[in-house]
Amino acid sequence: QVRLMExxxxxxxxxxxxxxxxxxxxxxxxxxxxxxxRQAPGxxxxxxxxxxxxxxxxxxxxxxxxxxxxxxxxxxxxxxQMSNLKPEDTATYYCAASAKYSGGCxxxxxxxxxxxxxxxxxxxxVTVSS
Length: 130
Hints:
- It contains no helices and 11 strands.
- By secondary structure, it is mainly beta.
- Strands 2, 4, 5, 6, 9, 10 and 11 form a 7-stranded mixed sheet that branches. A 4-stranded antiparallel sheet has the order 1-3-8-7, with no helix packed on it.
- The protein starts with a strand and ends with a strand.
C-alpha cells in the first residue's frame, strides 16, 4: 500500500520558520488534490492548505500570508513552508491526498475538507514556543 510520509517537523520559537515535506509517491499524477492538515491536542483535525493538480491553492484564514503550499511533481514531494510561526500553530501536521474530484480540490460550493481525503501520512509534530 502506498503511503504518504511527512518530515521536517520540530520545535521553534515564535516568529521562526519551518519547512514540512511529504513524500507522495504516485500522488502527483494529476488525479489527486493534495493538502496539509493539523490537529492540536483536544481539537479536531483541520484543513491548513490545499493544492490542485493545476497548482491552484487554498489556505485557511489564520495561515494566509505565512504558509505556502507547493509541490514538486518530479520529486513526488509536497511542501509546506511556514514562516512567522505562532504558538497557536502548535499541532501535529498531516499531509493527505484525495482522488474525489480528479485532482481538483473544490466541490463546486466548498473546498475539500478532512472527510474527503482518503490517503494520509502519519503526521509530524510542530511545536512553537512563545
